[in-house]
């Protein structure tokens, strides 16, 4: 075991503090990563405050990890010391079920994925997983992603969660030329959804409560920007979209947003509202519309996303902070006061 510096929540609702954690020795197929940057995801805040009742304290959050390979095990073939790499929301899966064999580890049915933090290495030693608010992490090479040259590490880090969360449904529902895509919300997820949908060739519309971020939305690649607080928006855009990505966690009027879909259109929920999603069957029936959801992508698709991002000059819009600013950043995330992702400089841990 190797002790490394980290920031951890000692208990639910308690501010994070500097500590050290143990990382396992580098095994046959392991990669030791020196973490350069880690993004702050809203999920981190939920876990630190134990909003979902999962416990597991002390807890080191962070699943948007970008860094450099510091050491590799003797069986590693895909990476070498000095390579730019990333780790997202999972660090293992059963590897045997149909979904895992097909590169859909996120939907593992053989016991579920092993999350990067707040989980246990159930397929190996049962040790708790601790995330990227630390200086180093050891991960099996199968769950390590290559970050292409030209993609700044601080901009790449949020792609490992927020990026793949929006890229995966865009690819699955065939966003591209001739398709009209709407993105609800222009935040950490939404701003990347706009960038990816635009780069894929779709006509992109942002649907936000107000026009406050309109200039940003158009700069990021949106063709149109509408305020959902204006009832005329729903009249003007009725029957317009092939695909709607809902990136917010607030409860919405499902019927109102379903009215914006054209025939065979789909609204995909990427945030998790506190209350169950509801809609009248008639809103789905009249137009053969669908409500769906989507997790992150599997490892192959996540690598595809990173390669696509590099090829198209896509990175997250970030505000880099020191580790001492984590609590302030959490408060600002809850106030939606960030454009559009906080990233921790891990040299400050």
Automatic annotation (TrEMBL):
Keywords: Metal-binding, Oxidoreductase, Zinc. Its EC number is 1.1.1.2. PROSITE patterns: ADH_ZINC. Pfam families: ADH_N (PF08240), ADH_zinc_N (PF00107). The keyword Translocase does not apply. GO terms for molecular function: alcohol dehydrogenase (NADP+) activity; zinc ion binding. It is an enzyme of class 1 (oxidoreductase). InterPro entries: ADH-like_C, ADH-like_N, ADH_Zn_CS, CAD-like, ER, GroES-like_sf, NAD(P)-bd_dom_sf. It catalyses: a primary alcohol + NADP(+) = an aldehyde + NADPH + H(+). Residues 13-344 form the Enoyl reductase (ER) domain. The keyword Transferase does not apply. Its cofactor is Zn(2+). Belongs to the zinc-containing alcohol dehydrogenase family. PANTHER family: ALDEHYDE REDUCTASE. This is alcohol dehydrogenase (NADP(+)). It comes from Streptomyces bauhiniae. The lineage of its organism: Bacteria, Bacillati, Actinomycetota, Actinomycetes, Kitasatosporales.
């Amino acid at each position: 075991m190797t002790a490394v510096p980290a920031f951890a929540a000692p208990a639910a609702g308690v501010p994070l503090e500097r500590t050290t954690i143990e990382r396992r020795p580098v095994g046959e197929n392991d990669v030791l990563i020196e973490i350069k940057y880690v993004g702050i995801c809203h999920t981190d805040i939920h876990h630190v405050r134990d909003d979902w009742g999962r416990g597991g304290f002390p807890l080191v959050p962070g699943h948007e990890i970008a860094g450099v390979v510091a050491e590799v095990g003797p069986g590693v073939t895909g990476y070498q010391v000095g390579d730019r790499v990333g780790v997202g929301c999972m660090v293992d899966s059963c590897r045997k079920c149909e979904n895992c064999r097909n590169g859909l580890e996120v939907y593992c049915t053989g016991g579920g994925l092993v999350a990067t933090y707040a989980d246990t290495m159930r397929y190996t030693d049962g040790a708790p997983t601790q995330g990227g608010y630390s200086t180093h992490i050891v991960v099996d090479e199968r769950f390590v992603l290559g970050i292409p040259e030209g993609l700044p590490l601080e901009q790449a880090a949020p792609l490992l969660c927020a990026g793949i969360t929006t890229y995966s449904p865009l690819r699955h529902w065939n966003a591209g030329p001739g398709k009209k895509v709407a993105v609800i919300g222009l935040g950490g997820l939404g701003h990347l959804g706009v960038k990816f949908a635009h780069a894929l060739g779709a006509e992109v519309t942002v649907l936000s409560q107000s026009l406050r971020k309109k200039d940003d939305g158009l700069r990021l690649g949106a063709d149109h920007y509408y305020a959902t607080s204006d009832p005329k928006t729903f009249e003007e855009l009725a029957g317009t979209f092939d695909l709607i990505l809902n990136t917010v966690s607030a409860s919405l009027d499902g019927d109102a947003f379903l009215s914006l879909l054209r025939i065979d259109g789909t609204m995909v929920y990427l945030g998790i509202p506190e209350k169950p999603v509801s809609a009248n069957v008639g809103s789905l029936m009249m137009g053969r519309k669908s409500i769906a959801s989507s997790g992150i992508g599997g490892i192959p698709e996540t690598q595809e996303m990173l390669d696509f991002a590099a090829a198209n000059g896509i990175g997250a819009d970030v505000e880099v902070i020191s580790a001492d600013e984590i609590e302030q950043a959490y408060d600002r995330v809850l106030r939606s006061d960030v454009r559009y992702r906080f990233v921790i400089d891990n040299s400050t841990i």
